[in-house]
Amino acid sequence: MSHTTSSRRAVADGLMELAEKDERICFVSSDSVAVIKAQDFAETYPDRTVETGICEQAAMDTAAGMASTGLKPVYVTYAVFASMRACEQFRSIVCYSNLNVVVVGANGGMGAGEREGVSHMGCEDVAILRSFPNLTILIPSDASQVRKALVAAAALDGPVYIRTGSGKEPLFHTEQTPFEIGPVRQISGRGNDIALFGCGFIMPVLEEAGSLLEAKGVGFRIIEVPTIKPLDRSGIERILNSSRAAVTVEDHTVVGGLGSAVADVNVQSANIPMRMVGIQDVFPESGTAEELYNKYGITPENIVRKVLDVLQ
Amino acid sequence: MNSSDLKKTAARLRLDVMEMVFDVQDGHPGPAFSVAEIITALYFGGIMNIRPHDPLWNERDRFVLSKGHACPLHYAALARSGFFPTEELFSLRKIDSRLQGHPFMGKTPGNDGTTGSLGNGLATAVGMAKGLVIQKKESKVFCIIGDGECNEGIIWESVMAAANLNLSNLTVFLDNNLWQSGGSVEAVSGICDFQEKFETFGWNTLCIDGHSFKEIISAVQSSRPMKDKPTVIICSTVKGKGLPFMENDNSWHKRVPTQEQMDIAREILGKEAV
Ligand SMILES: [Mg+2]
């Protein structure tokens, strides 16, 4: 896995790209400038950089107030603080009022939190935020996709949450691959034995699992779900209806995340057997991303195990 | 409006609140009454630059009722200003209404802030003030917070941020009625010395009688020349002010009047309103 442009830096790049074209774009920081290396933005657009200090709740509402005056604020903090510390502000002010606030949550998932440990890992952000009406939730899968997701989010009417990572993720798509809000996309594979659904920076793990399955003669399709809300229910239904079984893979708790979202569609449509790979309702710990994925089962081997199990 | 007309209007708004709460059999009259003069001054005393026929006018001044439970009085002020028909006041807290139990900017014409969850209105007002500065607009932002509300951590986050952002277009009225939901502010939370606290954070501070139109209006005027600092006007008020049976009786924080109490309210406030 070769490391390319950082997914955090990608947020700053996206902000610069947006700000050049649209003077309503602002950056709201709760001492988050260093988090996404946004020093360039802060220097280029000091008047559009709003620093509240380390107070995520006030920062979330500040973004809401700015949006209400016609601006397009992008508030950046860690996923865990966006979804938990400022949870109520996100729900009751931003989402309820349906304001044009884009919230970027860094360190989404345990792999992104890495050595920081549980306090800085956004392992439940998607589960919490999925329950908020009006919100669009995007989970891009590499740095280039993060930048494009941010650009797409800014053009959308209403609040958006973008989950991003540590900045060390491999490039999964090409620089040319677009990011489209809404539809699921088939990444690779052929055959109808198993549908592998994934999202975010662990998509390469699904690809590796695909290679192992191919070697075993198991027909598979890898489906990326870049928009977790509103969910492409018909797209997912179509895949489920033409598969024998499904496995979901996410760097997030299996309680309420991608697995739950797909299961929700499944029970109301295809009703095929399913398994979920992800954080199994436990708190992870400090470690490298690779060590964490190994210990908590987000590996090609574990995916294959789940596939063989569910196909039995 | 002159002072005597403002007094009549405040009585009218208080009576509206009583009628609304009595009709729906739910609501917070006490906390609404302590801010009656402040809201009346804002909407009828020539302070706020607004256009009732164009509620989303870009250049308007903003008002956020951070202590959102006092909203029946704000709804009455909006209706009496012409933002929506006064008959609609009786839809308060009812199904399919534009007048939610707590303020919701998405539904009520003239309401700029979604509040009710204490503390968030001030933080939202900070964002509005900054947003207006960024767009080089002259519009001002007014916000009312409660003294009990100052228990919330986000109030002090916002106080810190507003000072550091030099928001001179933000004026906050602190409704210092000495009560909060569960009892006296002193007993429940012990928070006090608001002027000292705000000054330490770098705010321009003023202390006035929150039921005196003269003091409210002159405080707003005197705060205008302040450069680079947000202003807090600490208003000494009486919870339930305007009806003797309600004043300083904290059971009126959330309470519905009886028929007899409504008769008294109509007698007293009705007389003052004309
Ligand atoms: Mg009080």
Write up this protein.
The complex is a heterodimer of chains A (312) and B (274). In chain A, 39% of the residues lie in helices and 19% in strands. With 312 residues, chain A is α/β, with parallel strands linked by helices. Chain A folds into two domains: 4-170, Thiamin diphosphate (ThDP)-binding fold, Pyr/PP domains (Rossmann fold); 185-311, Rossmann fold (3-Layer(aba) Sandwich). In chain A, the strands form two sheets. Chain A has a seven-stranded mixed beta sheet with strand order 2-1-3-4-6-5-10, sandwiched between helices. A five-stranded mixed beta sheet of chain A has the order 7-9-8-11-12, sandwiched between helices. In chain A, helix 8 (143-155) links the parallel strand 5 and strand 6 (160-163). In chain B, helix 1 (3-24) packs across helix 3 (36-44), helix 3 (36-44) runs parallel beside helix 4 (71-81) and helix 5 (120-134) runs parallel beside helix 6 (153-164). Chain B has a five-stranded parallel beta sheet with strand order 1-2-3-7-6, sandwiched between helices. In chain B, strands 4-5 form a two-stranded antiparallel sheet. Helix content of chain B is 40%, strand content 12%. The A-B interface holds A 26, 47-48, 50-53, 55, 57-71, 73, 88-89, 92-93, 96-98 and B 58, 62, 104-106, 112-114, 116-117, 119-120, 123-132, 134-135, 137, 153-154, 157-158, 160-161, 164-165. The complex binds magnesium ion (MG). Magnesium ion binds at residues 146-148, 177, 179-180 of chain B.
Count the domains of chain A: 2
* Biggest sheet, spatial arrangement of strands of chain A: 2-1-3-4-6-5-10
| CATH level 1 name of the largest domain in chain A | Alpha Beta
* Total beta strand runs of chain B: 7
Main pleated-sheet profile of chain A: 7 strands, mixed
Uncertain spans of chain A, ≥5 residues at pLDDT below 50?
A: none
Radius of gyration of chain B: 17 Å
Distance between the termini of chain A: 32 Å
CATH H level of the largest domain in chain A: which superfamily? Answer: Thiamin diphosphate (ThDP)-binding fold, Pyr/PP domains
What is the CA–CA distance across the termini of chain B? 14 Å
Ligands, deduplicated = magnesium ion
**What's the architecture of chain B in CATH terms?**
3-Layer(aba) Sandwich
Q: Tell me the CATH architecture of the largest domain in chain A.
A: 3-Layer(aba) Sandwich
CATH class of chain B equals Alpha Beta
Q: What radius of gyration of chain A results from the CA coordinates?
A: 19 Å
